[in-house]
Amino acid sequence: MNQSDHPSVVQTLRQISRPVWLLLVGMLVNRLGNFLQIFLVLYLTQKGFSETEAGVALGAYGIGSVVGVLLGGTIADRFGYRWTIVVSMAGAGALTAVLVHLSAFWLVLVVAAATGLLAQAYRPASSAMLVELTPEKQHVMVFAVYRLAFNLGTTAGPLLGALLIAYSYDLMFYVDAVTSVVFALFALRLPHAVASAKGEGEEGQRKSYLAVLSDRGFTLFMLALFLNAVVYIQHIAVLPLQITADGHGPGVYAALLSLNAIVVITLELPFTKFVQRLPAKVAVALGVGLVGVGMNLYIAGPAIAMFVVATLVWTLGEIIGTPTASAYPGQVAPPGLRGRYIAAAAFPMQIGYAIGPALGVALWTVWPSGVWWGSSIITVVAVLAAVVGMRQPVSSEDTVAAPSPGADVPLDEAHAGPRDSS
């Protein structure tokens, strides 16, 4: 296996094309200005709305976000990736700027939901474009770079937002609007059309999410993502309760979250140099398994050192499995369905993140350690679903012979060269 089959970080960065750089930088700028969801509750309450109303508005934004990803997948397949990103970002920017001028709660609710929808609609198109504009051997590494930009923006964005709030909430949302529009302007410079974006003739246009669900292997992969999300989100839902119960203060919890962010940002790219050599199903199964093991280790507290070890274990799982899991849907999607496959993979994770906290906290109230033991059991099922469901991504040379979504596919090991966020 020679080095050119699995390029290093430096090699990948040097070979990234101009359109891919536009996507990466545009997404980073957008994430740096992603203030609306983070500060919406604080903004609305200081503007005179009740806490209940602010919470409902945030919920509307969240529902719009989930719908936006699914709708974005369909639009990307039908009308192409570039215009999906342009319309999504320009529309989100315009609505964010409008929000600061609204005083009627029902209007705030509608605009918040619509903004959430548009703000997330670009994601299937951007991921699909990364797959199509990048050589297969660089997919895994490029998605790791994409995640680095996303995580940097997500980490620095709230700090920038807090600085802007010192001057004005309105200014903060205007900056949010501008960063979205900047991404839209970047997207205008992207290729006008990507070959498979519109499918192959009329048959590609008639396909829907039912075609995705008929792919039995991919449905198992989606199940693995859902179960992993339910487990992963416990570090936000139940971990702070565990830390408090073990006699530690909020500072310990904040330090663990910071440790996770630092490790992901600094080590994911170097790790990906080696992870990309693994078959895709092995990388995802290993990542999902380590997340479950890390969560289970929280039982072994109350020593702070044990909390640190557990956090490092599940963080290792995150950086091993996530880049491959992100690239995989775009690699195995048939022509004309890439946007929908990517959106369909994001959907079960969002559902897992939504219901996971409720399930975890409910179990915690009756059996605290059961949350971590339950995470282990769920993880075993998730690992099996990934191993059984994932197949070898079809290379560009084999596209003509690509199987239909519902066909049985041999479970050969897939090399992570074409590796997948969210």
Automatic annotation (TrEMBL):
<dbReference type="InterPro" id="IPR020846">
    <property type="entry name" value="MFS_dom"/>
</dbReference>
<dbReference type="GO" id="GO:0005886">
    <property type="term" value="C:plasma membrane"/>
</dbReference>
<keyword id="KW-1133">Transmembrane helix</keyword>
<feature type="transmembrane region" description="Helical">
    <location>
        <begin position="209"/>
        <end position="233"/>
    </location>
</feature>
<feature type="region of interest" description="Disordered">
    <location>
        <begin position="397"/>
        <end position="422"/>
    </location>
</feature>
<feature type="domain" description="Major facilitator superfamily (MFS) profile">
    <location>
        <begin position="19"/>
        <end position="394"/>
    </location>
</feature>
<feature type="transmembrane region" description="Helical">
    <location>
        <begin position="278"/>
        <end position="298"/>
    </location>
</feature>
<protein>
    <submittedName>
        <fullName>MFS-type transporter YqjV</fullName>
    </submittedName>
</protein>
<dbReference type="GO" id="GO:0022857">
    <property type="term" value="F:transmembrane transporter activity"/>
</dbReference>
<keyword id="KW-0813">Transport</keyword>
<feature type="transmembrane region" description="Helical">
    <location>
        <begin position="341"/>
        <end position="364"/>
    </location>
</feature>
<feature type="transmembrane region" description="Helical">
    <location>
        <begin position="56"/>
        <end position="76"/>
    </location>
</feature>
<feature type="transmembrane region" description="Helical">
    <location>
        <begin position="20"/>
        <end position="44"/>
    </location>
</feature>
<feature type="transmembrane region" description="Helical">
    <location>
        <begin position="96"/>
        <end position="119"/>
    </location>
</feature>
<dbReference type="InterPro" id="IPR011701">
    <property type="entry name" value="MFS"/>
</dbReference>
<dbReference type="Pfam" id="PF07690">
    <property type="entry name" value="MFS_1"/>
</dbReference>
<feature type="compositionally biased region" description="Basic and acidic residues">
    <location>
        <begin position="412"/>
        <end position="422"/>
    </location>
</feature>
<dbReference type="InterPro" id="IPR036259">
    <property type="entry name" value="MFS_trans_sf"/>
</dbReference>
<feature type="transmembrane region" description="Helical">
    <location>
        <begin position="253"/>
        <end position="271"/>
    </location>
</feature>
<keyword id="KW-0812">Transmembrane</keyword>
<feature type="transmembrane region" description="Helical">
    <location>
        <begin position="171"/>
        <end position="188"/>
    </location>
</feature>
<dbReference type="InterPro" id="IPR001958">
    <property type="entry name" value="Tet-R_TetA/multi-R_MdtG-like"/>
</dbReference>
<feature type="transmembrane region" description="Helical">
    <location>
        <begin position="140"/>
        <end position="165"/>
    </location>
</feature>
<keyword id="KW-1003">Cell membrane</keyword>
<dbReference type="InterPro" id="IPR050171">
    <property type="entry name" value="MFS_Transporters"/>
</dbReference>
<feature type="transmembrane region" description="Helical">
    <location>
        <begin position="370"/>
        <end position="388"/>
    </location>
</feature>
<keyword id="KW-0472">Membrane</keyword>
